[in-house]
Amino acid sequence: YVEYIFCLPGSLHLNVFIFVKYNGQTDTGQYPTLGDSPYGSLWPLPQKVKISTVVFKLSGASFHIFDAKESSSGASCRLLQNAYRRYDEYIFTSSRKQGQNKSKKALASDMSELQVWITSADSECDSYPSVTSDESCEFTGMVFVFFHFSHLCHVNSLLHSTRRPHPCLNTSRMITEVNYLTAMAWNKFNVFHWHIVDDPSFPYLSRTFPQLSQHGAYHPYTHVYTPSDVKMIIEFARLRGIRVVPEFDTPGHTQSWGKGQKDLLTPCYSGASPSGSFGPVNPMLNTTYDFMSMFFKEVNTVFPDAYVHLGGDEVDFSCWKSNPDIQKFMEQQGFGMDYSKLESFYIQRLLDIITTTNKGYMIWQEVFDNGVKLKSDTVVHVWMGNKVEEELQKVTEAGFTTILSAPWYLDYISYGQDWQKFYRAEPLSFKGTDAQKKLVIGGEACLWGEYVDATNLTPRLWPRASAVGERLWSDRDVRDLNDAYSRLAKHRCRMVQRGIPAEPLFTGYCAHE
Amino acid sequence: YVEYIFCLPGSLHLNVFIFVKYNGQTDTGQYPTLGDSPYGSLWPLPQKVKISTVVFKLSGASFHIFDAKESSSGASCRLLQNAYRRYDEYIFTSSRKQGQNKSKKALASDMSELQVWITSADSECDSYPSVTSDESCEFTGMVFVFFHFSHLCHVNSLLHSTRRPHPCLNTSRMITEVNYLTAMAWNKFNVFHWHIVDDPSFPYLSRTFPQLSQHGAYHPYTHVYTPSDVKMIIEFARLRGIRVVPEFDTPGHTQSWGKGQKDLLTPCYSGASPSGSFGPVNPMLNTTYDFMSMFFKEVNTVFPDAYVHLGGDEVDFSCWKSNPDIQKFMEQQGFGMDYSKLESFYIQRLLDIITTTNKGYMIWQEVFDNGVKLKSDTVVHVWMGNKVEEELQKVTEAGFTTILSAPWYLDYISYGQDWQKFYRAEPLSFKGTDAQKKLVIGGEACLWGEYVDATNLTPRLWPRASAVGERLWSDRDVRDLNDAYSRLAKHRCRMVQRGIPAEPLFTGYCAHE
Fold first, then answer.
1. Which terminus of chain B has fewer CB atoms gathered within 10 Å of its CB, N or C?
2. pLDDT at B122
3. For residue B512, pLDDT beyond 80
């Protein structure tokens, strides 16, 4: 990020007096004092940074970002040119509005240019970001700054997810997704885990099975993601170095699927007759697997990422147990009364289908816990809040890569500065070899959508997710709460100034207001 | 409210499937099922209501609200005309936009008019709402609806408050206050308890002491309430039947006062010398009382309401204890080591000053608890979360009126449907005579601003505060959670449709989206 070069040593001191009206509830955290960090507003903190005591001015009239002569990628790289333009706007829009630079000439101490030097042979300008993309970058030099990066230089091994399938994509709501991805890039989140369907709604408009959203979405044309909506989101993300990993969660969390796809879900019984309600996907019918095969064939073409998230969490067995046909099937298969075997039976067949599409897959931890046979490149998603370290130990012992989201459920809100709780979590504290630790390829901040929509998503997400961003991107030893507080307060003001209404950490105000 | 007449019996059924991703935290409440309430979207529920099975259409082309011939108030009453216009806009704007009524003629079953009949001799058209205003109203008749009301017909014995002195009032922020009062009216909140200054900032621009905001506000001209800002807010509130009760909290919570007013605060000591920091208002100096006398004289003229809130909460004694002059003063006054006596000494003199201005006063419960001698018309504000019932019992036993806010601290957020917690609270469950119960003149929902600003205020406030609104406005027996959930979900959608981003109660969507 360009602005990272300009960490002015602190001169502005804010005095914040702490008051807490206590009426019998406890606050979740300490109150760090708001001093000035030597790192200014840098967030998240890079692995290495050295602050110069010399302050360089940055003038919109004279400053330019351009491609270094030696760079392997240049003017033809739309992705880079887009990024230059974006950051030029971020940095200079407000000062240009105020007309600050119109009359000024460049001074000798001005920072006049930023040269971008791509050193890798493949600049990945026209491809999608992937898990193997080299995202390391470096700023060096003084007035002439060279920096090396692979594609976009906002790097994180993070997934970001929301449970509520954003219910609609008319113009105003599209803004929600766009804001979301924009702020993700600022906070170095590089994977958008798009939990696009769930029990309440099926907003994904499938070309193969249009009846799914026709009957399963909140509304069949105002509350759906059309193929072109999906394309736009993927492209908007790509330009910011963000992968889009869709999740189509089965066999549970599929109530909305059943509305448009007859016989896909298991009929629940009340005594000897069907109750009229439905349970998880029906694992005993061949039609189920025919459907899944066709459905995921489409998913494979629509979503370019090498991975798809297949879910597999929270399967409720009660409906299966009530159904006499399922009982008979259990008997035939020799599963006894162990319904997790039936679940695994389903998942196993689903995984076999996906394998034929050449997609890699992620699954929620239950699938691993139940002993389903997984491809060696499977990513196991650890989300349960209990026994997190044991689970990480087991998963990595078995040789699987893993993504951790258990400590970062942002939908769990509480009074006070709970960003500190997310910030303190340490993903590598489990017992294991260095090789095992390396299998933890990232973390994910989740904001499930039961209590969230466009009215409250953004301030609930930011800057709380920013705390997760630094935990996962910066050095493990970056843990000073006071320093973090100072930087994060400024970072959140920067987000507000750029149009993302991130909520305040505490009292105080933003200098730009 | 005009729209209350039109409670269409339910025909729209939403199916909501409940899913909760459980990762080790507990949810705060049950999940009510979303059926349809026989009362449609009525919120809060009136004391009496009868739903007609006949549905009347309301056509923007033909419907008019006007003054009944017999009404004691009519076309010259700006307050009423304003309310008619407002509700006409609320009800018909969206349908007119869609051009629904342009081509349609009035049908026989149309509701064609609403006659407003003010029966009280004094319509209070040009005065401010007061605690004695008769706010009862009634809708009767069928096609011709007469309704009686005193002034605005949105009545509640509620105060509404926010701790963070809204730090700024530039155009964009003024919208915050305006939105706040607008939604208050919809939810029958009739008092805006304006906690206008506190430790972090003194945004109130005083004509008498302009240096207070000059030095004590976050910013001396962008983050202040000018006299005309205050006037506009009071008038905007008046048109909606909302009283504005300002709070100038002393002797604690006054850090920001000290920046512009020399010698007002007590210098704290570190050993034998001043530490440079300051504590509560200095109670031993006559200059303190001279200042307060002049300051509250101004407050008296700026704020027309008959009451002012004087605070008196959470006084920290440590600074007083450290100061040798205060120690000497304590000795002279014979207070021993009991610093609450010093606090009461201050408050007592302050109350005497206010009494001369003819304002009534409210105080936080500590002032009562410390045995300060109070005027008989004092309103004691019960806010502490522990021993609420005992406190209410004591306060009313002593004959004072009281406002309860302890169960309704909306700044305490938690995961899940916490509106239910606010909804379940019962303010009159304490032991006491009927006469004592009558002294509980209202309740207050508080949203202290430590973690709130314009980015997240509105969705955090609504519809959680709406739950408090119904608890305090509707009959005590109105407690059915399923019925409330159904109505509140619709009520929140109505707020969103009218431009107030109230957050969702749970999954689902709004019909207007």
1. C
2. 74
3. no
What tokens were used for A384? 């349960």
Q: Which of A32, A160, A86, A176 is nearest to A442 (CA)?
A: A160
Question: Is the CB of B253 inside 8 Å of chain A's CB atoms?
Answer: yes
Q: Is the pLDDT of residue B381 over 80?
A: yes
Residue A148 has pLDDT above 60, yes or no: no
Contact, A211 vs A152, CB < 8 A? no
Give the burial class of B183: count Cβ atoms within 10 A of its Cβ; 0-12 exposed, 13-18 middle, 19 or more buried.
buried
The alpha-helical segments, DSSP class H, found in B284-374 are 286-302, 318-322, 324-333, 339-356, 365-369
For residue B110, the cross-strand partners are B57
What region does B24 belong to: left with phi over 0, alpha with psi -120 to 50, or beta?
left
d(CA A116, CA B248): 56
| pLDDT at B24 > cutoff 70 | no
Give residues 137 to 156 of B whose Cβ lies within 8 Å of A. Answer: none
- Which pTM does this prediction carry? 0.87
CA distance B21 to A452: 14
| Tokens coding A463 | 């800057």
Burial class (CB in 10 A: 0-12, 13-18, 19+), A81: middle
Q: Is residue B50 part of a domain?
A: yes
* pLDDT, tens digit (0-9, with 9 covering 90-100), for A75-133: 888 888 888 888 888 877 766 665 554 445 545 566 677 778 887 777 778 889 887 77
Residue A447 confidence class, pLDDT cut points 50, 70, 90? confident
Model pLDDT, residue B499 = 92
- Cα–Cα nearest to A30, from A482, A508, A490: A482
Residue A143 belongs to domain with CATH number? 3.30.379
Beta bridge partners of B193: B161, B245
Helix (H, G, I), strand (E, B) or coil at B308: strand
Please report the pLDDT score of residue A15 as a whole number. 22
Instruction: Give the residue carrying structure tokens 């309440």.
Output: A200
Tell me which chain B residues have a C-beta less than 8 angstroms from the C-beta of A314: 19, 21-22
Find the catalytic residue in B70, B89, B314, B331: B314
What does the pLDDT look like over A25-56, one tens digit per residue? 444 344 555 678 888 888 888 777 777 666 66
- Region B414-428: mean pLDDT is 95
Residue A199 to residue B412, Cβ atoms within 8 A: no
Best B20, B21, B319 member to test A by mutation, with max A CBs in 10 Å, is B21
Please give the Cα distance from A438 to A392 (Å, whole number).
Answer: 11
**What is the SS3 string spanning B183-215?**
HHHHCCCCEEEEECCCCCCCCECCCCCCHHHHH
Instruction: Answer whether residue A346 is part of any domain.
Output: no
Give a yes or no: residue B228 inside a domain.
no
Q: Does A488 touch chain B (CB under 8 A)?
A: no
- SS3 of A390, please? helix
Helix axes A227-238, A171-186, angle to 10 degrees: 20
Q: What is the bridge-based pairing of β-strands B273-281 and B265-270?
A: antiparallel
Domain that holds residue B61: 2-152
Respond yes or no on whether ipTM tops 0.90: no
A271 sits in the region (left: phi over 0; alpha: psi -120 to 50; else beta) called left
Q: Residue A187 and residue A182: Cα distance in Å, rounded? A: 9
In a domain, A95, yes or no: yes
Report the number of distinct structural domains present in chain B: 1
Q: Tell me the C-alpha distance between A473 and A175, whole Å.
A: 27
Pick from A7, A29, A3: nearest CA to A18: A29
Residue spans of alpha helices (H) in A377-480 = 388-397, 419-424, 434-438, 457-461, 464-473
Token pair listed for A61: 């009239």
- Bridge-based pairing of strands B379-382 and B360-364 is parallel
With beta carbons less than 8 A apart as the criterion, state whether A347 and A367 touch.
yes
- CA B211 to CA B201: how far, in whole Å? 13
